[in-house]
Amino acid sequence: MKNKIILLLILIIPVSGCLSGDNSLQQDLSCPVPENVLSSLQEGDFILRQGGGAFSEKIIEYMGEEKHFSHVGMVCNINGKLKVVHSVSEELSGRDGVQTQGIKAFCTDVADSNICIMRPKMTKEEIAKMTKLARHYLREKIPFDYDYNTEDSSQLYCIELAYYTYGTVMGKNRFDMKDCGDGIFVPLFGSFFKSEYFETIFCLKQY
Fold first, then answer.
1. Is the C-alpha dihedral spanning 184, 61, 69, 84 positive or negative?
2. For residue range 110-128, what is the model confidence (pLDDT) as tens digits?
3. Which of 77, 163, 164, 198 has its CA 20 to 30 A from that of 176?
4. What domains sit in the chain, N to C, each tagged with a CATH number?
5. Where are the alpha helices (DSSP H) in 13-123?
6. What is the pTM of this model?
7. CB burial class (10 A; 0-12, 13-18, 19+) of residue 83?
8. Torsion (CA) 179, 2, 11, 75 in degrees, nearest 10
9. What is the pLDDT of residues 129-172, one digit of tens each?
10. Residues with Cβ < 8 Å from 103, sequence gap 6 or more?
11. What is the largest CA-CA distance in the chain?
């Protein structure tokens, strides 16, 4: 029970600076990802970042991973335009659960130069299945998972969205999991750096 309380305190509380939507003011802020990289993004790419603020730092500390990330979203074609599909809490964005954000806006809130773009090694058909799932969760307005229960997709937190889109198509066993106690298992961000499954398109910080 103690582990569950600690996890909820760290992960449920909003991470400062992770804004949602297509706010043009946010897109005008400095984006650390070069334009040539942004223009090369494809459907199915995953963008991992360390958000600004103390709570992002707490998430990173709790997860204890070598590479410091606190959020992830997937690039998807939404009505003919590439956007990031991700899941955040209502307290954070004003909208709860799975939602979209402009790519530049998503890439703007980055702390300590920690942002990477990972491309899954999948066929076009597999990517189509994965992004179709993401759009399904978006259309169904799947709420944020405050229970951090990876047993079903009725609610989804950020990396759990990747777990249920990529994992459903390619296998959930490709994700390493952190045992948080009390039956809570959280997918690890380091899973995206398995070279047999993902290609690194861009990392601002070299690992």
1. positive
2. 988 899 999 999 999 999 9
3. 77
4. 18-23+42-203 (3.90.1720.10)
5. 24-28, 35-38, 54-63, 90-93, 103-108
6. 0.87
7. buried
8. 20
9. 999 999 999 999 999 999 999 999 999 999 999 999 999 999 99
10. 38, 41, 47, 75, 82, 83, 84
11. 47
